[in-house]
């Protein structure tokens, strides 16, 4: 069994493999590097086999999305720890040391993410990474370094290793046994929010999630779906509701879902007024899809009842990040109370 398997999920990402895979191999420190291909229709696989035959290739039979694609691939890999790495991430020398140290020295930690900066604006934190993700009580994510669209410049203000609520799937180190015990990502999510859902389940099971500033990578972001892509908007809003419904305690659950309906409606109106009609319609479709899959989400919620009853500590931000950002004008994570 390998100590660590670095696993890159690929779907029509030849250009990213060309750009970033050589650096991953240079800084892999002897650990196994895999590319799990989600039935790409470009020539990614042929290019990989020709130029990097030492990379271990797993070929999924179809595009299972981010969630299902990793689940399919990781069933075939024997390692103590996985590093799930987006194809559009530039790694740096020594990037493996700090995350592995945390996992090896602290058995209660199930997932770790490094500091994630923006590849194009290299002094700023990346939108979906920062130095550890958090979640407010309504299910809105933010990070140590990014609140909504405001990304801070990295000036060392978050250079500590700390527990967080979720580790970013762009570069996520996971204890393999915990991943498999919990069933991995929820494949019905397809993509987006699946890492937050998994980290929530990890905490329900009594594990911890951490972020370390001792490792830095650079993420392009939006490599598969652009941030203003209606498909991305649909998946984010639908999966956010599903994640809340699956994992939150019963107290006030339906009131929170109703409040999300109202707030998501306001987000749709905001898109409408700004001329993004497709994004507004994506939010509407996301809600109908969530309610339409109600029976499936209900079964998954029931499956987590036993874990919820154990009352393990969960690191939710029990205030509203919307109120803090839009009404109190807070723009930095460090200013949150």
UniProtKB/TrEMBL annotation:
It holds the Pfam family Glycos_transf_2. Belongs to the glycosyltransferase 2 family. GO terms for molecular function: glycosyltransferase activity. This is dTDP-Rha--alpha-D-GlcNAc-pyrophosphate polyprenol alpha-3-L-rhamnosyltransferase. The keyword Glycosyltransferase applies. InterPro entries: Glyco_trans_2-like, Nucleotide-diphossugar_trans. Keywords: Glycosyltransferase, Transferase. The keyword Methyltransferase does not apply. Residues 6-174 form the Glycosyltransferase 2-like domain. Signal peptide: none annotated.
